[in-house]
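Figure 6 in text form: structure in, sequence out.
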């Protein structure tokens, strides 16, 4: 986390002191580093510079308009999974012609809007979806560019909830059925078959599953060629992991190296859909300790963030580092469960953490830039946290804190 570091005993985001930011904007607060987002994006772009490629940032990881805008300015494309995400990309100045549309349940209106916007490709996940895209395209007098997302049946060796490339998963078209579906797609006038796609899971910490999946997809491309179906682009999905604790995921350069050798002699444009590896370590969640609560069994540090702000620990048992903004030197560490105020035993951000704490201290939950704010909710009628972006020694509100009035605004009582 080089963009978040201690300077003179205080944790900073780039050159901004996080305790100052907490004072200025309140907590809980998501803080992102522009420089980190840019560095992480460029690492992918440079790693694949030897081939024709397009990095399509997976919007679901962090869809704040400012985040999308920072990446759009660098030339990023985007991987979207809903009409809402397309609207965000366009509002953030993203280029529709660099957008790929993934996801299992695309609706007619979403398909129509994406066709009108002129996206690069639909990543199609079932034969039924293919028929729907064909029908909508014909009704608009258009041809939809499509890839089939094939399911290569490869074990991504990650958490079962975020593993997507096994035959028992709901995603993609089984690779042994793909030829028939491709042949059908090629016969439909509303479709232009241009690509192949696969995404096998998230938070992968080894290149082996990616390489195995690529072998299977390349064999599929050769089979398709034998049947007269020419594939122009290969979308290798996202999924590259990050370090939350002691993982040693490949760097984007190592990831590229493991894959690019297999592509020699082919004229394929490579699309990639990284989300987490760009956003996770570009953000932290800043939170304040409200109370310390020692009991006979455990010590609890009750903080002002909770599972509604950051659900990864509760949902996946994910371990995310929790570090002090201003470490104490005059008190000893004790073992704490760091918990929120939500009425669920599953509401914790960290368990058994050794921390030297006083009430009122600020803590940073690390690696919170991806699948953090985007998965937050209003459970317990808690307004969602504000988001800010740091750019050197400047900081900008990129989403204001929700008020109680915001939460009530969409509801009404019976007459
Ligand atoms: N492409 C597709 C089709 C995806 O489904 C995903 C993530 C990505 C790209 C980006 O994957 P990434 O590079 O971020 O690993 N909420 C979970 C992660 C869910 C990932 C879903 N799909 C978590 O917090 O760990």
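Output sequence:
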């Amino acid at each position: 986390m080089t963009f978040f570091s201690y300077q003179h005993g205080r944790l900073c985001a780039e050159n901004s002191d996080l305790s100052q930011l907490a004072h200025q904007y309140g907590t809980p607060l998501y803080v992102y580093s522009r420089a980190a987002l840019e560095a992480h994006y460029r690492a992918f772009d440079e790693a694949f510079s030897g081939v024709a490629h397009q990095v399509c940032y997976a919007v679901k990881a962090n869809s704040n308009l400012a985040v999308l805008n920072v990446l759009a300015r660098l030339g990023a494309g985007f991987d979207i999974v809903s009409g809402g995400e397309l609207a965000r990309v366009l509002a953030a100045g993203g280029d529709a012609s660099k957008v790929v549309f993934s996801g299992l349940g695309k609706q007619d209106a979403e398909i129509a809007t994406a066709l009108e916007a002129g996206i690069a490709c639909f990543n199609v996940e079932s034969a039924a979806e293919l028929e729907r895209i064909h029908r909508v395209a014909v009704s608009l007098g258009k041809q939809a560019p499509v890839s089939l997302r094939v399911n290569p049946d490869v074990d991504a060796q990650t958490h079962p909830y975020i593993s997507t490339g096994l035959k028992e998963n709901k995603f993609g078209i089984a690779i042994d059925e793909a030829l028939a579906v491709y042949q059908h797609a090629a016969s439909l006038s509303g479709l232009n078959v241009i690509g192949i796609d696969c995404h096998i899971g998230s938070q992968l910490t080894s290149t082996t599953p990616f390489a195995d999946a690529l072998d299977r997809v390349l064999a599929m491309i050769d089979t398709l060629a034998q049947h007269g179906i020419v594939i122009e682009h290969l979308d290798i999905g996202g999924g590259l992991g990050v370090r939350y604790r002691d993982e040693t995921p490949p760097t984007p350069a190592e990831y590229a190296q493991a894959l690019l050798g297999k592509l020699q002699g082919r004229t394929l444009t490579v699309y990639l859909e990284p989300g987490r590896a760009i956003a996770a370590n570009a953000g932290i969640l800043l939170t304040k300790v409200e109370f310390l609560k020692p009991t006979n069994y455990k010590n609890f540090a009750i903080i002002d963030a909770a599972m509604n702000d950051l659900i990864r620990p509760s949902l996946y048992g994910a371990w995310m580092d929790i570090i002090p903004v201003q470490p104490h030197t005059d008190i000893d560490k004790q073992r704490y469960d760091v918990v929120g105020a939500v009425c669920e035993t599953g509401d914790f951000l960290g368990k058994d953490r050794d921390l030297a704490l006083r009430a009122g201290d600020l803590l940073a939950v690390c690696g919170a830039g991806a699948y953090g704010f985007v998965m937050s909710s209003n459970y317990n009628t808690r307004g969602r946290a504000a988001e800010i972006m740091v750019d050197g020694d400047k900081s900008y509100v990129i989403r204001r804190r929700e008020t109680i009035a915001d939460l009530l605004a969409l509801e009404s009582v019976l007459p």
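Caption detail: The mean pLDDT is 96.
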